[in-house]
Amino acid sequence: MNTAKPVRIGVIGGGLMGREAASAFGRWFVLENFPVRVELTAVCDLQPALLDWFRQVPSVRLVTSNHHELLASTDVDVVYVAVPHHLHEQIYLDVLRAGKDLLAEKPFGIDLAAAKKIRDEAIRLNRFVRVSSEFPFLPGVQRAIQLAQSTSLGRVLEVKAGFLHSSDLDPAKAINWKRQNAYCGTIGVMGDLGMHVAHVPLRLGWNPTSIYAQLQKGYATRPDGKGGSAICDTWDNAALHCSVVLGGNAVPMTLEMKRMAPTETNTWYFEVLGTERGVRYSTKEPKTLWTYRRDKEQWWEKTDLGFGTPFKTITGGIFEPGFPDILMQMWAAFLAERAGMLGERFGCATPDEAVASHEWWAAALASHARQQVVALP
Ligand SMILES: NC(=O)c1ccc[n+]([C@@H]2O[C@H](COP(=O)([O-])OP(=O)(O)OC[C@H]3O[C@@H](n4cnc5c(N)ncnc54)[C@H](O)[C@@H]3O)[C@@H](O)[C@H]2O)c1
């Protein structure tokens, strides 16, 4: 039995993601032989109903609507912040300056300047900081990464990655902060979905040398939920046509981030095709890994994957992992790396990767505005 002192976690922003984090900590004991224990001790949100929800978590000893109060607590070692994007910069800097480590939600600041400021402050203060992106912890994605890193693909011909939603197709869907530039950022859907798409290419070192972006808006107004309507000024769909140099060859890499992709509900996908082999994985078929090989004929082969997550749990090997499982795996990677025990396993997105992703989105905005290909360093 692990009797080590738990890492005490505070959550700022107890909405959709703050409660998902609480769910991961609440069943931490399913991780097998995991070296770090956790305890959710403090929560901050502006909504009393959400604070009430957290009161049912037995380990929570502080609930507050003032994040400075949470940060002043000596009962908190690590802070998870899941608030609207316009608040990232100030709250992340407050966390770092309070001497706490940080798991930051994407996009890690509302824009490139904010992301750099947070990254640089974390370096200056020597704080451990990582950025949330959970899809790479799916067994299928881990296998796709292994194949992409191997030499067995031959010459890489093309790369496609994307993250697709469809609920914005409904014009009656009420506005929320994610649909307004002031709160979500002028990068729109790229801030919302982009880190998920960029994380694997970034980790593979597949940095675009140029980007041509096509950005689309959906409905100009949406119901405000109070009987009126509100301006919806955000980019809803982004298609980035990139060039990346792999093995000395310029390879097309397409990145799609869409809130208006008919029939797609949280579909994350990644595909690499080479002259010898290829791999395709999509959460549309969450336990299926497709691999391509070429001999006399060409074959797509399909493998059912089980619960082959990077960190072992008590869950049976033939069972299917879902969103709460990979979120827990991401937290396990964060806490293992913080403790110096990640080993060869896949780590969470780094501040440098988040800054690099913001460089892509800034280039995409410039490309769309000028209707030109934009070069990246
Ligand atoms: N990793 C993922 O899969 C994923 C999924 C969805 C959202 N996100 C990210 O998580 C973050 C939050 O998104 P969400 O979907 O949870 O949003 P949400 O609107 O459900 O929750 C945000 C919460 O922040 C609270 N809040 C606002 N201002 C605050 C303040 N000053 N102090 C404390 N709390 C405050 C709100 O009351 C709300 O409960 C965003 O950065 C978003 O991009 C990540």
The residue-averaged pLDDT reads: 97
Unreliable parts: none
**Main sheet characteristics:** 9 strands, mixed
Q: In order across it, which strands form the biggest sheet?
A: 16-15-14-13-7-12-11-8-17
Shape: globular
Helix content: 25-40%
Q: What gap, in angstroms, lies between the N and C termini? A: 50 Å
- Strand portion: 25-35%
Q: What is the H/E string?
A: EHEHEHEHEHEHEHHEEEEEEEEEHHE
Number of strands: 17
> Number of helical runs?
10
Bound compounds, please? nicotinamide-adenine-dinucleotide
Structure class = alpha/beta
Integer-rounded radius of gyration: 21 Å
Task: Please explain how this structure is put together.
With about 375 residues, this protein is α/β, with parallel strands linked by helices. Helix content is about 30%, strand content about 30%. It has helices at about 15-25, 50-55, 65-70, 90-95, 110-125, 140-150, 180-185, 190-205, 325-340, 350-370, and strands at about 5-10, 40-45, 60-65, 80, 100-105, 130, 155-165, 210-215, 220-225, 230, 235-245, 250-260, 265-275, 275-280, 290-295, 300-305, 375. A 9-stranded mixed β-sheet has the order 16-15-14-13-7-12-11-8-17. Strands 3-2-1-4-5-6 form a 6-stranded parallel β-sheet, with helices on both faces. It has a two-stranded antiparallel sheet with strand order 9-10. A hairpin with a 3-residue loop joins strand 15 (about 290-295) and strand 16 (about 300-305). Helix 1 (about 15-25) packs across helix 9 (about 325-340), helix 4 (about 90-95) runs parallel beside helix 5 (about 110-125) and helix 8 packs across helix 10. The longest helix has 20 residues, at about 350-370. The termini are far apart. The mean pLDDT is about 95. Nicotinamide-adenine-dinucleotide binds near residues 46, 67 and 87.
